[in-house]
Amino acid sequence: MDPVDDSLDNLLPLLNDYQDSWQALQRVDGQIEALYAQVRLKGVAKFDSEEDPERRLQLLVNAYAHRQDEALTLAKARRAAVTDIARTLRNIRSDYESLEHQLALFNREINKRQVSNLASFRIVLAPNKDALKHIDQIITAPGSTRKARRCRCSICPSPPIRTRRTRKPRSTWLGWWRRTTTSWA
Fold first, then answer.
1. Taking 90 as the threshold, does the pLDDT of residue 24 lie above it?
2. 142 and 112 both lie in a single domain
3. Which of 43, 127, 171, 174 has the most C-beta neighbours closer than 10 Å?
4. φ and ψ at 22, to 5 degrees?
5. 180 with 156: CB under 8 angstroms?
6. Is residue 71 in a domain?
7. Hey, what long-range contacts does 174-183 have (CB within 8 A, 24 or more apart)?
8. How many angstroms separate the CA atoms of 66 and 49, rounded?
9. Residue 10's pLDDT band (boundaries 50, 70, 90)?
């Protein structure tokens, strides 16, 4: 660093230069804050919790430099979420089919005995057909890996055995399942 002439004659130009530098820095700070406000308005607010403005800006610059890696990470997380949702829907559908089956078994067994003075007793599900249709559409969408389960009880007829050449779509099997289960009720 060069020595500064701090004589009384040179003091006024030094103060003016200092004031100009300080005002320029204030303008730059204002511009940085305005740019950061624009970034926040566009939805990037994850660094707002950082108290130190220097650190906050450093994190923002680093995030911008690694935005493609973050996009890949978000895409992986999105695929994982879709997989989890599909698995949950398959489980819901499977549980519903199991409930239908168990109710059919219960109704058949309970009507074999005289429980009371009723001629017959039956529990009937009132399914939300729209919801089930949408679940089936999501489950049978391309990329879904739902496999048909075969019921092993003596009451339910087994679905046709599928081979690679005679494979039917899942929706056909579900239609068959619905036709056979509604005939029990």
1. yes
2. yes
3. 174
4. -65, -45
5. yes
6. no
7. 174/136, 177/97, 180/156, 181/100, 181/101, 181/104
8. 20
9. confident
